[in-house]
Amino acid sequence: MLDPPSKELLQRLTKLKLCTAADLRSCRRRVRKLARGIPAFDSVWIDALVQAQKITPFQARTLESGNPERLAVGPYLLISELGHSHKSNTYIAKTAESAELCALKITRPQNDHPNLIQKNFQDLLKRLQGLDHPSLVVPRVIKQLPQQFAIISRHLPSTTVAELLIRRGRFPVHVVLAIGTQLLDALATLESRNVVHGEIRPWNVRLTPNGIAALVDTGIESILSPELTIHASLPPRCYDGVAPELIGTGRHPNSQSDLYALGCLLWELLAGRPPFTTGDPLAKLACHQTKSIPDIRSWAPETPAAIADALLKFTSSNPEQRPASMQQALQLWPGQSHTSRKSLKNFHSSFRTQTSRSSADSTQRKAGRLPLIAALIFVLSGLSLTLLDEGARSQLLKITSHVSFQKQNVPEPHESAPGTILDDPSSSVITSKQLIPPPNEKGIILLDSLTPYESTKITTVGPLTIRGSTDAPAVIQIHDEAFSIVAEQLTLENVIFVSRSNKSKAAETSLFPSLLNVTAQSLILKSCFFAQLDEQHQSSHKLNRSAIYWKPIDAQQRNRSQLEIHNTIFAVPEHAIHLTHAPHSLSMTNCLNITSRSTFYFERPPEIDQQISLNLRNLTLRNAGPLLLFNWVDQKIIPGVIQIETQDCVFDLSQAALIQVLGVKPPENWLSSVNMIGEGSVASSEIQIAGWQSTREQPLEELDTSTMPIEGLSTGKFKYAASLSLRPADSVIIEAQVPRKSALPPGIQVEKFPDFVSRLQTLKN
Known about the structure:
The chain is α/β, with parallel strands linked by helices. The chain has 19 helices and 37 strands. The radius of gyration is 30 Å and the shape is globular.
């Protein structure tokens, strides 16, 4: 016997007019299938209604919450959520009498004068009465609630330019020209009715599939917050486009401040980043107040002079030097209204194919990851590898045809009799080894470059420095166990770490196998190289290593924990750096990471009272996993703040998001605590900013980044010097179709690396 819905659920569904008795009867078969022998709880009935498309997932979540009544706002029924901010939530809604959808914003006023606000709202409605402009979404009805206001306007199926900017990077000139034409015409119409928009931001400009750029929330912000207020909890992006005359003066927004905000918005669309990229709200406001918006041609040199000159006038720090009216600004803007819709329609439609990936392509790239790593291992293992027979030689050569050194740099593999394999370690390239010497009185261990060193365990009091030669870095060879060091502070200079074993013994003795196991409060690497170059033995227990496994001596001393890495290369199948705890600061300068599963792997996200600062300069991730990978075990955890500053970095990821979560799905709003400034950094066009996987085998699910402040990161196409290999010169960017302020290419500066590969090749018998 199938249990019916509870009386409480029936009352809610009936009162809210979400479905009828006939809808419930039609769902009985779905309920029976979902229940599978267990009692048909209300949650099962709700799931069945969602599957039958009688209610939306948003309505289902609200019904199961402790406040299902919030689905009804007066005569309006909420359908789904469009977005939210620190003071408002916007929904798609409809009335029971009409099938027409509308946008319903519930906002909380920032002052204690709701009656005055209501009076101003009614005055706004009178001024906007009868206005019908395709690029304006104006309020139709404004109702005063006990502690809030409900603002109803037409629903416009569209996408914010903020989202498109993240997905694509900077916009083409003709697209920005069309957007500017339509928005200026809309603002000129508002000006004729003495209405100020007051909140021209990327998230308030929406692009429709039929080629319309529209402003939403028209006139709302200038009533709710007539004077500029500074909130430390707000992301810095909220202070982009603030006219200098509004800062600290108490003046209200007007057409001149709207024009300044529009100029900053169009500048950002052309450059792919706002004019000022500082991560501090006060510093950003100070820039708007004391500095001039730079010429857009310094970031987008293809911009025509007419557009650049217009933006300079729109964004003049002196309002008297801006056009006197929106109509004058429209005449100054070189766009043509009759061609703008076609340009924007084509631009919007390109996102349907630009960001999608076929399943076949996805499978091919995912399946190709392991052969790529195997090829990299083979390239250097070719120094000592004995191939079984000509068939094996052909297969391996086929794999490495995609990834190889220049021919003159790779010694020919030794020949062996067919059907034999060299298991004797004495037959490999690196044969004799020496022990690590003790530190001198200053805590420094000097390594020579004659023969490789055996990995060992070192425990010392105070700081420790291990230093090789600049011209010929020292080699430390890793077998079953990692090279382990315990010190207050560890500095490594000019050292190569290579793995020479993939035997099952290490897999049984180490939970997190790595090349270097460090317990230290701070770690400094200068000119180091980490690679897993396992011998090609047939083994059912393949051991994949991380480069570094780090944990602090005292996890409570957070402010003293830091990692600093310079001129270093990572080529391992697992993580470049495995972190048991989140350090206070992480910095990487001129580093290359290829094929690693992630660059930074955190066993847990930062705690609520902790802030992580990442400073990345000239970092190149090529065919690698995410920049940050978090192991998330508790959905209720409230993570701390993560500040990421990148300059001239290259993010070329392989089927990964820039920031990725593994395990339990994180809270929906957690990305609001992640702030990224990408000064001069570039990423591939198809990059995902954030993603989540429950397990490594599950597909990657893209996370909503609308609350995540991202500034300055450009996306586009770029070209490397050569196919992927362990030679850093092959991963230099030689061509990039992205805005560049510097004449130098983004990514690594190859001249600062020692010649690691030649050093390994000199170790041949």
